[in-house]
Every structure is written in structure tokens, then in C-alpha cells.
Amino acid sequence: MTTSTVKLPFPVSVNNLFLNIKGRGRIRSPRYRAWAKEAGWMMAAQRPAKFDGTVTVTIDLCAPDKRRRDADNLGKAILDLLTDQGVIVADDSRYVREVRTRWNDAGDPCLVTIQSI
After folding, report:
1. What is the pLDDT of residue 111?
2. Rounded to an integer, what distance in angstroms lies between the CA atom of residue 62 and that of residue 107?
3. What one-character DSSP code corresponds to residue 31?
């Protein structure tokens, strides 16, 4: 069983990932593009293991402020990043069998643990 953990910046909510642009369709928002660029560099520097089979993903979050947030709105950007960076093959049900999201009162803004099944 292989496990890899990466530290990332606090993710963008699914509510702010995309914009609808007339004539172009849905595009990544500037905020999402900036987050994905920073998170991609952070991930590359940490050199996580690559997983070619089924995995579980655990996301530990520490909010940057006291605003209320829905944990289930924060995983999309992370799973897409794992796929874009080649850490996992895809984020669909063939490969990602479980996603857990937990809130922490202190610590890293976002700590992602990928574990092979």
C-alpha cells in the first residue's frame, strides 16, 4: 500500500471555479487559474508518488478565517489538480473510491493524503 501526502494552498470553492462566457462557454475563473498554478508548483516541488490504480483521498483543511464553508465544495479543485498533475489517473469512480474531508482548527491550509487501495 502506497501513501503520499502533499501540502497545498487553501482550495477555491466549487462555486468560484468557472465563469460562463458568452461565445466561449465555461472557462476557469482567474481565481481558480491562480490557485491551480500555485498549487501545481507546490505539488511538483513535493514530488508525490504517482498512482495508477484505485485510491482513497483524505483532505485535511484549516480555514484561513472564520467564515462558514461547506467542506464538500472544496474537493473538486483538489481532485482536478491531482489528475492534471498525473498523481492519479482520473478522479472518477473507477479510480477514486473514497474522498474524506476533515476540518482542523490549526495546521496547514490544505493537506491531501492519497493512499492506494
Report:
1. 98
2. 6
3. H
Annotation: CATH topology of 3-116: 60s Ribosomal Protein L30; Chain: A; (3.30.1330)
Per-residue model confidence as pLDDT tens digits over 61-99: 999 999 999 999 999 999 999 999 999 999 999 999 999
List, in sequence order, every residue forming a beta bridge with 101; answer none if it has no partner.
Answer: 59
63, 11 in Cβ contact below 8 A? no
Which pLDDT does position 30 carry in this prediction?
92
According to DSSP H, which parts of 66-107 are helical? 75-84
Which residue's entry shows cell 489517473? Answer: 89
pTM score, whole prediction = 0.92
Radius of gyration of the chain (CA): 14
